[in-house]
Amino acid sequence: MCRRGIMVAVLAALLSLSTLAYYGVHGRVCQEPVAWVALEKERPWADDPHAVFAFDPAPRWFPGMGEPLPPRTPAEIPTADRGVTLHLSGIEGEGGLVLCLTLSTENRVVYREVEHRVSNEIPFLFGFIISGEPVRIARPTQGAWSGGRTLVKVVEPGESRTWRIPVDGASIDRVVGRSVGRVSIVAVFSERQPRAAALAAEWSKTDIDVLPSTMEGTLARSETLVRSNELLLRRRGYGWGVE
Question: Whole-structure pTM over 0.85, yes or no?
Answer without folding.
Answer: no
